[in-house]
Amino acid sequence: YRFQILQSQINPHFLYNCLSMINARALRCDQPDISKIARLLSTFYRTTLNKGHSTTTVYEEWRNITAYIELQKILHPAFRIECHIDESLFHYRIINLIIQPLVENSILHGLSNKEYTDTEPGTILIDAKADQDCMYFTVFDNGCGMEAGTLASITTAETQGYGIRNVDQRIKLYFGDIYGISYKSAPGIGTTAVIKLPLIIENTDSKSCTP
């Protein structure tokens, strides 16, 4: 319900028309960077809104996160962001918009102090793979890390916007309590978030796995 409210705040038709206009005018003015930003935004919002559907394929979710990452690379050129995925996962179905909030969290809270320092550059690594009957999406950052108290409450704390708690609750609602988000973190070292999901093909029943 919260996700549907978030979606309803955006008028997709108007948004896409504006982005298309920006892209066309940027190309006319020989501004390829602006054209790229407009196209990435269009891809990101098309895959985010997903025509109002709550589920999508791993392939479409991956398109969403790669578009978001390319935009973040433009905004934060000092960061290193890499994605790796087992492409055999592309045809499985998942809930849409579950990876991007984790990456955004890493940028805003993990790497925010690394962008303008001479220390090791801010790095985010995103990985997706299957293991037995489950798939795992991992988001690692080498940022400031979290204290034990913050770590313990990250999936239960109320936050503004579409946060980690919301993602974890949606996963559990769809697939059961053995699935969701888990975190490992150490102050000054970094944070690793792992999304655990069942393997589901189209409308077939999900396969459970050992929690």
Question: How would you describe what is shown here?
Answer:
42% of the residues lie in helices and 21% in strands. It is α+β, with helices and mostly antiparallel strands and 211 residues long. Strands 2-4-5-7-6 form a five-stranded mixed beta sheet. Strands 1-3 form a two-stranded antiparallel sheet. A hairpin with a 3-residue loop joins strand 6 (180-186) and strand 7. Helix 2 packs antiparallel against helix 3 and helix 3 (32-49) packs antiparallel against helix 4.
Tell me the layout of helices and strands.
Elements: H1 2-8, H2 12-28, H3 32-49, E1 55-57, H4 58-75, E2 80-85, E3 93-95, H5 100-110, E4 123-131, E5 134-141, H6 148-153, H7 164-175, E6 180-186, E7 190-198
Parallel strand pairs: 2-4
Antiparallel strand pairs: 1-3, 4-5, 5-7, 6-7
Helix pairs in contact: 2-3, 3-4
Low-confidence stretches: 204-211
Q: What's the SSE pattern?
A: HHHEHEEHEEHHEE
Distance between the amino and carboxyl termini: 27 Å
| Count, helices | 7
Tell me the helix content: 40-55%
Percent of sequence in beta strands:
15-25%
Q: Please describe the biggest sheet, giving its number of strands, its sense, and whether it closes into a barrel.
A: 5 strands, mixed
The SS-based structural class is alpha+beta
Number of strands: 7
What value does the average pLDDT take?
84
Radius of gyration from CA coordinates: 18 Å
Strand order of the largest sheet: 2-4-5-7-6
